[in-house]
Amino acid sequence: MERAPHLNRKKINITPFLFFGMGLLFVLIGYIVTRCYFLAVNSGYFISEPVGDISLALLHGLRFDLAAIALLNAPLLLLLFISIWFRILLGANMKLIYGYLFVVNVSAIVVNFIDTVYFPYTGRRSGPEVFSMANDVVSQLPELIFVYWWYLVGSIFILWFYIAAFRKIARKLKAVYMHWLLVFCLCFLLVLIFIVAGRGGFQSKPIRALNAYSYPSSSLGGLVLNTPFSILKEDAEDLERVHYFQSEDDIREVLENGKAAGATRNKDIINPAAIII
Length: 277
Prior knowledge:
Blueprint: H1 3-9, E1 12-13, H2 15-41, H3 51-83, H4 90-114, H5 119-122, H6 134-139, H7 141-147, H8 149-172, E2 177-178, H9 180-199, H10 221-224, H11 227-233, H12 248-268, H13 272-276
Antiparallel strand pairs: 1-2
Helix pairs in contact: 2-3, 2-4, 2-8, 3-4, 3-9, 4-8, 7-8
């Protein structure tokens, strides 16, 4: 009961917001670096594209990076809107932000990095369909690690780098206080920023993965996109499952009829040597 007047009289420590913002800045840098790596590894697929279009694709990709970051971190932001008002939760907020940045955002960067090796097989960024291949990946994990060991090393380096970076940021941040009314305005501003970023701009409809192929070139869509955005925005349920056969017996029947028809056609063919003569 005494907490409300106490909050009204004193300023609010917004250090968690600062930590959150600086952490997201480092996450955005991770998206940019992994996109540049994606371009370097798969440069053969974009070699025919003009340098200007590739530059525009890299720039356009920021739109999708910001959208993915906003969508992934919206739950944490909403939670901070509540907990930031209680000084007793300052330490808990800092730990929560640290854990969320690492578990959610750094994992997204690692996924974006690893998906580079999968692009040559599909020609596109991976989407929700990757979850259906989880069992296959697990069963072949030792072989995959042996073949693509440098991606394991790179992932470990990414994890180590962000652990060190987040710790250093948290330690060097100094406490910053704002009047409660300004904090309220800051929260409102953050909501607007996350909404605009999550929608991909001010257009009437939120961006989808298909929008990445509209500019600057359809062949550069894989470079514009990032894998976390594709997983979040591509709806696997929209894909209609088509059943061509009612049962396995129908499949066997069609195969048997196909073999029989093929054998009949072979009997009707005249000796090719006779035709040549």
